[in-house]
Write a structure and sequence with these properties.
With 197 residues, this protein is of the alpha+beta class. 22% of the residues lie in helices and 46% in strands. The chain contains four helices and eleven strands. Strands 6-5-4-3-2-1-11-10-9-8-7 form an eleven-stranded antiparallel beta sheet. The chain is globular and about 50 Å long. The chain starts with a helix and ends with a strand.
């Protein structure tokens, strides 16, 4: 057999292996997650009602949460048993106003620090609008099989797990979530969503 004929099968084998190693073409199409994330980002006016449990080694507290979001402005109320108000808070970037259960009013520029100092509640207030609606508040997140948030980590070592989603007026939104930091656990069970866009 000539050297040319012996070389031909080797050449065919190399070409076949090279074609198998070629990566698939890059597509410009958005993934399901990209599309879902965009839909959520466009929701600028919404409100929710939820039950919230605060669990630490020292105490266990339950309350009702009402949250209203209007673009960058947040307005929330936390009420305890029999509708007794625990606190009311209004927040926009750089400004926070809080009224405690004794109707005293306070102002500041760090919502989380002010809330913890006056009420003892530790909540990542500034990130909560994104957390509640199911958007990443950092680059550290994982998706579930349905291309929705399964978990994320945010500043100050908060771990957020999304336990359940539900359909609200045609939109799939978080229903149950859990926030954990050190020995503090916050459980949120959302009763109702209202989308005002």
């Amino acid at each position: 057999m000539s050297s040319k004929l012996r070389f031909f099968p080797i050449l065919i084998t190399v070409l076949l292996l090279a074609s198998c190693a070629t990566p698939p073409p890059i597509t410009e199409e958005s993934t399901q997650w990209d599309s879902y994330q965009q839909q959520l980002a466009e929701l600028e006016r919404w409100s929710l009602r939820a039950q919230i449990a605060f669990i630490s080694p020292e105490q266990r507290q339950k309350a009702n949460l009402w949250w209203q979001q209007d673009q960058q402005q947040s307005h929330t109320r936390l009420t305890g048993p029999l509708g007794v108000e625990v606190f009311e808070l209004r927040y926009q970037p750089g400004q926070v106003w809080l009224k405690d259960d004794k109707k005293n009013e306070y102002r500041g520029n760090d919502a989380q620090a002010l809330l913890q100092r006056l009420t003892g509640w530790q909540l990542p207030v500034e990130q909560l609008p994104r957390i509640l609606i199911g958007l990443p508040a950092s680059d550290l997140y994982q998706l579930n099989d349905a291309d929705r948030l399964a978990a994320q980590q945010i500043a100050q070592q908060w771990q957020i797990d999304y336990l359940n989603y539900a359909n609200y007026s045609g939109r799939v939104l978080p229903r149950q979530m859990q926030l954990v930091r050190n020995e503090i656990t916050i459980k949120i069970n959302i009763v109702d969503w209202q989308i005002n866009d």
